[in-house]
Protein backbone atom coordinates (compact mmCIF):
# COMPACT_ATOMS: atom_id res chain seq x y z
CA UNK A 1 0.00 0.00 0.00
CA UNK A 2 2.90 2.38 0.64
CA UNK A 3 3.78 2.82 -3.08
CA UNK A 4 0.10 3.49 -3.88
CA UNK A 5 -0.15 6.19 -1.21
CA UNK A 6 3.11 7.85 -2.30
CA UNK A 7 2.13 7.82 -6.00
CA UNK A 8 -1.54 8.74 -5.76
CA UNK A 9 -2.31 10.42 -2.43
CA UNK A 10 0.77 12.41 -1.33
CA UNK A 11 -0.38 15.96 -0.57
CA UNK A 12 -4.09 15.02 -0.72
CA UNK A 13 -6.60 15.34 2.13
CA UNK A 14 -7.85 11.86 3.01
CA UNK A 15 -9.89 9.84 5.49
CA UNK A 16 -8.29 6.65 6.78
CA UNK A 17 -10.39 3.80 8.23
CA UNK A 18 -8.66 1.39 10.59
CA UNK A 19 -11.69 -0.55 11.89
CA UNK A 20 -14.33 0.11 14.51
CA UNK A 21 -14.55 3.78 15.44
CA UNK A 22 -11.00 4.50 14.21
CA UNK A 23 -11.25 7.00 11.34
CA UNK A 24 -8.50 9.58 10.89
CA UNK A 25 -8.36 12.49 8.49
CA UNK A 26 -5.79 14.96 7.31
CA UNK A 27 -3.36 15.85 4.56
CA UNK A 28 -0.91 13.10 3.60
CA UNK A 29 2.45 14.58 4.55
CA UNK A 30 4.61 11.47 4.27
CA UNK A 31 4.54 7.73 3.85
CA UNK A 32 7.76 5.88 4.68
CA UNK A 33 8.94 2.87 6.67
CA UNK A 34 5.35 1.50 6.69
CA UNK A 35 4.02 4.58 8.52
CA UNK A 36 1.52 7.06 7.08
CA UNK A 37 1.80 10.61 8.42
CA UNK A 38 -1.25 12.88 8.29
CA UNK A 39 -1.36 16.59 9.21
CA UNK A 40 -4.56 18.21 10.47
CA UNK A 41 -4.70 21.60 12.23
CA UNK A 42 -0.90 21.65 12.64
CA UNK A 43 -0.99 18.30 14.49
CA UNK A 44 0.42 15.06 13.12
CA UNK A 45 -1.02 11.56 13.25
CA UNK A 46 1.18 8.56 12.45
CA UNK A 47 -0.61 5.38 11.36
CA UNK A 48 0.90 1.93 10.82
CA UNK A 49 0.13 1.04 7.21
CA UNK A 50 -0.69 -2.57 8.06
CA UNK A 51 -3.60 -1.31 10.22
CA UNK A 52 -5.27 0.59 7.35
CA UNK A 53 -8.44 -1.06 6.02
CA UNK A 54 -9.50 1.74 3.63
CA UNK A 55 -8.30 5.17 2.54
CA UNK A 56 -10.12 7.73 0.38
CA UNK A 57 -9.86 11.37 -0.68
CA UNK A 58 -12.22 13.77 1.08
UniProtKB/TrEMBL annotation:
InterPro entries per record: DUF6897, MM0924_fam
Name of the protein in question: Uncharacterized protein
Organism whose genome encodes this protein: Methanosarcina barkeri 3
Lineage: Archaea, Methanobacteriati, Methanobacteriota, Stenosarchaea group, Methanomicrobia
Amino acid sequence: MQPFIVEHLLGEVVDVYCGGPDVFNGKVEACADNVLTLEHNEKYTHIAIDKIIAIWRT
